[in-house]
Design brief:
The chain is an alpha/beta fold. The chain folds into two domains: 218 residues, 3-Layer(aba) Sandwich (UDP-N-acetylmuramoyl-L-alanine:D-glutamate ligase); 135 residues, Protein-Tyrosine Phosphatase, Chain A, CATH 3.90.190. It is built from 13 helices and 15 strands. The strands form two sheets. The chain has a nine-stranded mixed beta sheet, with helices on both faces. A hairpin with a 2-residue loop joins strand 7 and strand 8. The longest helix has 15 residues. It starts with a helix and ends with a helix.
């Protein structure tokens, strides 16, 4: 039904978004920007695309002019399924890396699967690609469509970001288009969060939406629940609730955010990163090296593969009195209620199945 229904709408109505990270944020940013000019429909956040995309198509009505679809994949052949329903005329690629993809094989298989979205674009279509991500740039090899880039490179990107910083729990940056420039006061925290915004801004430019309206759209975007949300913690502390999920790139970006925010002490609560397959141990150990290098004040670790973090930190010589591992969620709650004080900032992050959001709920300051 969805396949037949999609045929009632022009191909240029559809925009497909893929990548390994930032897809959901990008889709929501696209909606905020496109809505400045068109009535826009998108897939719903955090739902399985196998059902989400058909349900979105079946929700269309004649007043809707643009449809933005999140095309996330875990299994080989999923992109073929999406493209059997609808063939977007514009494709956006946020960033590609190896994570949560043990079902796809290696990185080359991941690039090939996601690349199908770009390869099917017609000559009058547009591929919007992350210039700063070498894996994403590989997708343009067999692309027949126009290619536009976003990133931090003024020479090669249609839109680019500059003067990036965090102030008052906001990410501020300059959005550039040719000689035009606007300052963005972005609610989402972290430099890694800017890339979905830049992708959406490039889409806005493709549709001739003025930079001032792109700014309005981006600044209206709010953080999604449990994605680096700022929460008041006990005793005047600040919690960064990033418990929706975890992956090496997302965790690395979250650690950078903590490092950029002035605080009395920087405290980490980390659960394991799941679905990393045979790479899990090495990827956890690489994160541990960054924690050691940046000298975070206290580290509380969960169970499972989070023990690789603990083992690596111990081998590196991290202060044993400032780290505890193999903790249950209830034990983490007890530790934080005792430890957190005014001026502290605490990042809480782990894979979704660990339910670390319950830790946040139990320690958050009640209104």
């Amino acid at each position: 039904m969805a396949k037949q229904y999609a045929k009632l709408y022009p191909r240029d109505s559809f925009i497909g978004v893929t990548g390994s990270v930032g897809k959901t944020t990008c889709v929501q940013a696209c909606k905020e920007i496109l809505s400045q000019k068109f009535k826009t429909l998108t897939t719903k956040p955090n739902l399985d695309p196998i059902l989400n995309i058909p349900n979105t198509i079946l929700s269309l009505n004649p007043s809707i002019k643009k449809i933005v679809l999140e095309m996330g994949i875990e299994y080989k052949g999923e992109m073929d399924f999406y493209l059997s329903l609808v063939r977007p005329e514009i494709a956006i690629v946020t960033k590609i890396y190896y994570a949560h993809t043990q079902f796809l094989g290696g990185l080359d298989e991941i690039i090939a699967e996601k690349g199908k979205l770009v390869e099917q674009l017609p000559a009058d279509g547009v591929a919007i690609i992350n210039w700063d991500d070498l894996n994403s740039r590989k997708l343009v090899t067999n692309c027949k469509a126009q290619v536009v880039y976003f990133g931090k490179d003024a020479k090669n990107c249609l839109v680019w970001a500059g003067n990036i910083r965090i102030e008052n729990f906001r990410t501020k940056f300059e959005l550039n288009l040719g000689v035009e420039r606007v300052e963005i006061n972005y609610h989402l925290l972290g430099e890694h969060q800017i890339y979905p915004a830049l992708a959406a801004a490039a889409l806005g430019v493709v549709y001739d939406i003025p930079l001032t309206k792109i700014k309005k759209g981006l600044e209206s975007l709010k953080p999604q629940e449990h994605r680096l949300q700022v929460v008041a913690g006990p005793n005047g502390s600040i919690i960064l609730d990033d418990t929706y999920n975890s992956s090496p790139a997302a965790l690395d970006g979250a650690l950078d955010v903590v490092l950029q925010i002035p605080s009395r002490r920087k405290i980490l609560v980390l659960g394991e990163m799941r679905e990393l397959g045979e790479f899990s141990e090495n990827l956890h150990r690489e994160i541990a090296k960054k924690i050691y290098k940046e000298k975070f004040d206290f580290v509380f670790l969960g169970q499972g593969d989070a023990l690789f973090l603990a083992d690596e930190l111990k081998d590196l010589g991290f202060w044993q009195e400032r780290m505890e591992a193999n903790l249950t969620n209830s034990q983490i709650v007890v530790r934080l209620l005792k430890k957190l004080e005014k001026g502290d900032i605490c990042l809480i992050k782990g894979s979704r199945a660990l339910r670390l959001d319950e830790v946040v709920k139990r320690i958050a300051k009640k209104d």
